[in-house]
Amino acid sequence: MSITPPRPDRILVVDDSAVIRRLLCDVLQADGYEMLAAQDGLEAVALALEHRPDLVVLDVNLPGQDGYAVCRQVRAHPDTQHTPVLFVSAAHPDVSDRVRGLEAGGNDYLASPFASEELLARVRALLRIKRNEDELRLRQYGLESLNRQLLALQAASAQVVSTLDLDVLVHRVTEALVQNLGYQCAVLALIQEPGSQLTLTSIRGVPIDLLDHIESETGRDMTRPMSSLDQLDPAVLQMFQQGRVLDAAQIIQGLGFLGLSHIWDIFQQHMGLGDMLLVPLLVQDQLIGGLWAAVQHPTLAPIDVDILRILADQVAVAIYNARLHANAVVAQEQASLLLDIQSAIAARFELQPILMLVLGGAVRALEATSGLLALRTPPDQGIVVQTSYGLPPGADVAYLRGVTDGVLGQAIATGRSMQIDHVHNLESDAWAHELGLRAMVIVPIQLAKRVIGVLSVHDRSGGRPFTLQDEQLLGAITDQAAVAIEQARLYEEVRRRAQEQAALNLVAETANRSLELSEILEASLQRVLDVNGLPCGMVYLPDITGEQLIMVAHQGTTAGLLHQAVVARLNVDPAQDAFRTGRAVVINLGATGRSRPGEYWGRPVSLAVIPLQAKDVTLGVMEVGGLEPELVSEQDLPLLTAIGRQVGVAVENAQLYAETQQRVRELAALNQMATAVGESLDLDTVLGQALEHIQKLTNAQHLIVYLSEHDNAPLRQRATWGLPGPQEPDSWVPATDLFGESAIYEVTTLNIVPGSRTPANALLYAQGIRTVVLLPLRSRGARVGVVYVLFTAPRVLGTVEQQLLDTISRQVGVAVENALLYQTSHRRAITDGLTGLYNYRYLHEMLDREIARSQRYNGHLALLMMDVDNFKDYNDLYGHLAGDDLLVTLARLIQGQIRQVDTATRYGGEEIAVLLPETELAAGVQVAERIRQTVADHAFVEHDTRAPVHMTISMGVACFPDNASDSRNLVRAADMALYAAKHAGKNCVMVASDPAPALPGPSDGPGQVDP
pLDDT by residue (tens digit) across 924-933? Predict the structure, then answer.
């Protein structure tokens, strides 16, 4: 209620004389009055009606119309009919003039001349009389208004107390304020529950289009809760809770954060409201709401406050009683509903029907639009949506996001119920917005203080806020549901265990009939499909690397399609995932894909993926299901998991049996290899036997042997197996680039990957090699060589296989060392100790061998005989040590000019013979000439003085079968050609005669040629 400060009395002076007007105004204004002035009657009437003066001082003689006519006009208007008029006359009036003035409505008559004191005294008297009359009229009006208001209050009270229906009651209250008590508009706002928000419950007198305009101007939904009590201004809240009536200023101050000042301006602009009051509704000192009323006139009188107080007290009691009545009715209905739900679920043993009854009863009890129930699934305690009502497709996925990120997860974690009236305020719960939820109640399902699930009931229409009673009712329903759920789970567990045991017995019986892995897998898979009524299945076991799975058994024509469909739809391989994690999983995919000709991606897929485990180790994966909807479910996982363990044990037994058999075969092969490599001292034979047995034991694609003549000597390629085409020594892979010198003393595995920066690795990858296993060949702790075992697929060695290869490497190492020792002894017997060339004996062995081979293949064999020119003079001049150095250098020069298959021998003294297999006479001459020129160009270094010395050689060339038919005559032909070269001037090459005359009898050894 606003209070207007008093203003000074306003007096209108009317006189056609400007001097008199000015004089009268000055006198009255000096006494504190507010002055108005007019010079004629028309102006006087207009000012009087516009400003409503408290007194009119009126000149009788006015131009146009006299003062009496002006007075009658002022008296005729209702706004000025009680305004006193003081006539002023310039001439002394007679009695008739005074009578005429009183008849015109005047209150007093003052004739000139007059004193200022007399004027002021008459003005004060008339104003005092007016105030007294105004007060009397006001009191009379107040009594009449009070009587009307009391009658209206009585009628309003009768309307309020005549119903116990809260919805009807609240609308009758605002209707009574507007229609009975005469307020322009009224609003009733209630607090639904202690501590909750003020909610606009009923409004009267405000046009709908104005409410829409206010919402668009302020951005506030007038149907939503207005505020929490703690948002009110503390001082205003204290007055409100104490039962104080709030006027306009206090209302705007307390609810300023709502933008109420702007809203009030809109009301004043569009409805012409002048004042408003807010009366608290109190019951037993408990604030339950507020009653707001507004009027068009400037202020509300104290009587309005009293009437609103009386009505508010009656309204508060009526609301309290209506709520008690409603609660009693609701309690009765809830008790009946709970009894119905209890009876319904008590007659069920299966979990799903019980859950559907619980959710349906909860939605009906709260008159909600939708609901959803989810349970924890032991043993991993994940949340699974069990049943829903009134929700769009995809609700399960959205709901589980709420469990993860939002209020659902909070309810499950804390075990506390939650009531949310405005879901749009939950910024973190986008899932609720996606489902179109407006309000919801969330109640955890608890058993012995353990949360086993959650029940949520929703309003999607926006027309029903939930209450504390709703939350309590859901709590009672979930208490019953928790017991029923536990009983259903126990029943299901007993039944499941019986079925599982029967199925396990069948699978165990099938799996234990054989020790052959393939038979076990095929029979077990078929039994699993029969037990579960499924159309197809597959079994996967890891490959030799243990990283990739291979299908080893399948049943049903759509097995491959089933697996491909899941991979195509999920972009993951469920078998690989189950093998890696060791967890079983059920995959159900709806027919949401777009099928194409010859493809099945658009069909539904139902698949259970079960790891085959033994002693908590995953040995493989079994997939069972089909291209039909919901063939398997989460409820099947316990049985399938147990079956997977049973089959896993059978697989382990079969693998152990297979490993044992393989071990027996490997030991037998190892014994065979030991016998084979130990029977020969020929290195090539030993290496050939070793590589053949290693390949059989490992199934390697390629093998390469590198040997060193002693522990510090470099490794050189000596033998290969499985390499394409003939291989030159050291041409395929560097000996130590892969592992380094420090790594070739133990069995080592290296995986070859693309993009390697190591040249050796890149070369191997280009050759198709993916794994290299290094076998060091050792004997008595010393390294004699290595064997590279090469695989074209990734390979991982098991412990047993690695131990076997280690044993093989030691046995082969001993055999190779023995062969090398024999080879070394044999080489020493056929090698010249000074030059390192073969000796005379080895030459004749090779001659007989190569001639026999040439005869067999119709080939040619060239023999070069050469002698150092003037060698005796060199020895005499520089000494025999210098001569020895010259022969060593000469041997090196000759070796540099011949092939590896050629044989150079020291035939005797300074005479050297070179055997050239598969070489015709002309080619032999070319080689001889190349050797002669190389020696002639070489500067030999004198032993003592280090001075350069040039020497020459003479050479004779003979060829089989051109110059001889056997080894003896071939040597003689070459020797005679050498003799001819000496006599031809030395430092030249001579060719044997064609053919040379044969000599009977054996040769006596190296011939003597003149120096």
Answer: 999 999 999 9
Rg (CA), the chain: 61
Four-CA torsion 500, 506, 508, 509, nearest 10 degrees: 160
Rounded CA gap, 779 and 809, in Å? 9
- 984-998 as b/e: b if 16+ CB within 10 A: eebbbbbbbeeebee
| pLDDT 10s digits, 59-116 | 888 888 888 888 998 888 888 888 899 888 866 667 787 888 888 888 888 887 778 8
Amino acid at 702: H
Contacts 24+ apart (CB under 8 A), 339-346: 341/477, 341/480, 342/480, 345/480, 345/481, 345/484, 346/484
Orientation angle between helical segments 517-532 and 468-511, nearest 10 degrees: 140
Distance (Å, rounded) from C-alpha 203 to C-alpha 226? 14
Reference 452, options 501, 404, 412; nearest CA is 412
| Alpha-carbon distances, residue 584 vs 302, 578, 638 (angstroms) | 79, 6, 9
Name the least confident of 394-408, 468-482, 847-861. 394-408
Give the contacts of 330 (CB within 8 A, at least 6 positions apart).
Answer: 469
Share of the chain above pLDDT 90, in %: 10
d(C-alpha 21, C-alpha 47), whole Å: 15
Choose among 142, 150, 61, 72: nearest CA to 97.
61
Measure the CA–CA gap between 119 and 311, rounded to whole angstroms. Answer: 52
| 389: helix, strand or coil | strand
For residue 37, the cross-strand partners are 13
Residue 33: which of 13, 63, 58 has the closest Cα?
A: 13
CA distances from 987 to 333, 384, 635, 897, 941 (A): 133, 102, 101, 17, 19
Nearest to residue 150, comparing CAs of 308, 36, 360, 307?
Answer: 307
Given 801, 817, 910, 911, which residue is catalytic? 910
Tell me if 236 sits within 8 A of 246, measured CB to CB: yes
Query: Cα–Cα distance between 96 and 91 in angstroms, integer?
Result: 13
Nearest to 483 by CA among 346, 655, 620: 346
* Contact yes or no for 345/192 (Cβ under 8 A): no
Residues contacting 120, CB < 8 A, separation 6+: 27, 28, 31
Please give the average per-residue pLDDT across 945-969, as a whole number.
90
Question: What is the 3-state composition of the chain as percent helix, strand, coil, each rounded to the nearest 5?
Answer: 50, 20, 30
- 11 phi and psi angles, rounded to 5 deg: -120, 135
Between CA 111 and CA 116 the distance in angstroms is: 12
133 is catalytic: no
Q: How far, in Å, CA of 89 to CA of 84, rounded?
A: 17
Six token digits for residue 263:
């809203």
Q: Which residues contact 122 (CB under 8 A, 6 or more apart)?
A: 86, 108, 110
Contact assessment for residue 843 and residue 913, using Cβ atoms and an 8 Å cutoff: yes
3-class DSSP state for residue 773? strand
Q: Encoding tokens for residue 944?
A: 């003592």
Q: Which two tokens stand for residue 536?
A: 């197809």
Which residue, 984, 1005, 992, 990, is CA-closest to 962?
992
Across 835-992, where does the E strand assignment appear? 861-868, 903-908, 911-917, 939-941, 948-950, 953-960, 989-991
Ordered DSSP codes for 9-55: -EEEEE-S-HHHHHHHHHHHHHTT-EEEEESSHHHHHHHHHHH--SE
